Amino acid sequence: MHCRKVLELLPKFIENDFSEEERAAVEAHLKECEECRLEFEAMGRLVDTLESIPPIGVPSSFKEAVMRALPAKKPPGEK
Ligand SMILES: [Zn+2]
């Protein structure tokens, strides 16, 4: 498998959105190709970072408006 193909598949790899064959091929390539491995690790870190950032930029008044618009039931617990 070529690096270019691996790099195309990496985003899907991170989202677990591809077949066993593709996964095995990418994993095999990552073991042998440091360049792609570094790219993969960088992407993985990026995803971790994005997921660890709390949602910001939503004004509390917007949140309250959404809560009011929802059917009357307890809002989900804060995380
Ligand atoms: Zn490679």
Task: Please tell me about this protein's structure.
This protein has one domain. The protein has helices spanning 3-14, 20-32, 34-52, 60-69. The protein has 79 residues and is mainly alpha-helical. It binds zinc ion. Zinc ion (ZN) binds at residues 3, 6, 29, 33, 35-36.
From N to C, what is the helix and strand string? Answer: HHHH
Proportion of β residues? under 5%
- What's the number of structural domains? 1
What's the shape? elongated
Radius of gyration: 20 Å
Poorly predicted sequence stretches spanning 5 or more consecutive residues: none
Q: Give the strand tally.
A: 0
Write down the overall mean pLDDT.
81
Q: How many angstroms does the end-to-end distance come to?
A: 42 Å
The number of helical elements comes to: 4
Structural class: mainly alpha
Ligands bound to this protein structure: zinc ion
List the helices and strands and how they pair.
Elements: H1 3-14, H2 20-32, H3 34-52, H4 60-69
Bound molecules: zinc ion (ZN).
Zinc ion binds at residues 3, 6, 29, 33, 35-36.
Please describe the structure with a list of short key phrases separated by commas or semicolons.
single chain; 79 residues; mainly alpha; 4 helices; binds zinc ion
Structure described in brief:
This protein has 79 residues and is mainly alpha-helical. Helices cover 68% and strands 0% of the residues. Bound molecules: zinc ion (ZN).
